[in-house]
Amino acid sequence: MSEEKVSVSGGQLVDKMKELIHEGNVRRVRIIHDGRTLVDVPLTLGVPVAAATVAWAPVLAAVGAIAGLVSDCSLEIERVDEKEKDDPDGPAAQQSAGDATRD
Fold first, then answer.
1. Distance of CA 35 to the CA centre of its chain
2. 9-43 pLDDT, tens digit each
3. Backbone phi, then psi, for 90, in 5-degree steps?
4. pLDDT, mean over the chain
5. Alpha-carbon span 62 to 92, nearest angstrom
6. DSSP string, 80-91
7. Is the entire prediction scored with pTM above 0.85?
8. Total domains in the fold of the chain
9. Is 75 within 8 Å of 16 (Cβ atoms)?
10. Half-sphere exposure of 33 (CA within 13 A, CB side)
11. In which domain, by residue range, is 56 found?
12. Cα–Cα distance, 20 to 66 (Å, whole number)
């Protein structure tokens, strides 16, 4: 699993989240403002693009509301490596099972 941090303006936040959802290899996104985590969004792997847009509409609406309140923020992005994505019993699958039981 790899992590990266990206700074975005409030106006770019929704577009960046849509882009990350469509990429398909993103595991989790945290929206951070002034060192505090505002939202921690776990993303599901393997959701078709059309379904992802519909399924994530409420999350994108919440992100849009946050974007209206903050001028600049950071995104912490966790990505799944390709070999982890292909391994059904690997760490990514085990983490997904743990996320499902917490909800």
1. 18
2. 888 888 898 888 888 788 899 999 999 999 898 87
3. -75, -175
4. 77
5. 26
6. --HHHHH-TTSH
7. no
8. 1
9. yes
10. 15
11. 2-102
12. 17
